[in-house]
Amino acid sequence: MGRRNRKGRNITGIVIIDKPTGRSSNHVLQQVKRLFDAKKAGHTGALDPLATGVLPICLGEATKVSSYLLDADKRYHVTCQLGAVTDSGDADGKVLSTSDISDFSEQDIIALLPEFTGEQDQVPPMFSALKYQGQPLYKLARQGIEVERKSRRITIYDIQLLSITSDSFTLDVQCSKGSYIRTLVEDISHKLGSGGHVTMLRRIAAAGYQLEHAVTIEYLEELAESGLSALDDELSPTENALADWPSIYITDDMVDALRHGQTIKVNQDFDGDKVRLFDASKQFIGLGEMNEEGIVAPKRVFVLETA
Q1: Predicted model pTM
Q2: Average pLDDT, stretch 240-260?
């Protein structure tokens, strides 16, 4: 009997997961990798264990575009429970303090929201995956250790109030990469005169992918019973992840040059410095940077193999 190929398949594409609550993004990533029997896999920005929603997972050569997707804008629905502040900023954390909840109205919240939109500096929370001297901050936080964190420049493009109760409110937030919604919500809650924490966080869009594009792990597990080809039908082509980037079609000789790290010259109008590259058969082969003279330099070039 032949030995099973432990390396996995050379399958390339992106699957959009509707992450369930209570699981880490890495746990979901490993589940998807196992289901697809993929050699390589990576996600495009972690969600907190409490959070749900859009989690694009790149398989195979698609992992080469994951950093670009990580840089993309995101959109969330988030609910804040007033009256209690936790160490993690969400319901998974320990309560640090409680307070009476001041009376507030829809108009009170709406009037506050412009203060929190636009470019701003935000200090990342201790409960985050950012690293300090090689150690994830959340591991230090669980040991009761707090270290100084540098603020980071973020943009909150828009905040809309979706609903309120007597002790909570729910927002729709559109933001740039690196934005911590837990921190944003806690800051808003303090402005209302009562601290708060996140009880629901759902990412409804990331890198152009919407919640309606997402599938559950349970759905994939059911598909897996019909074989790998059924799962592969759920993969989105890698080039769709960067649909707003101009397309450049090149000859096989140019493809070889790019794969050897060389630049090429194309006869195409300049329409942006970041471009998607396709070979003569219209197969997506990677990403490049183009200048106004038509010189294209390779940034991420695929090496597509058979499974």
Answers
A1: 0.89
A2: 92
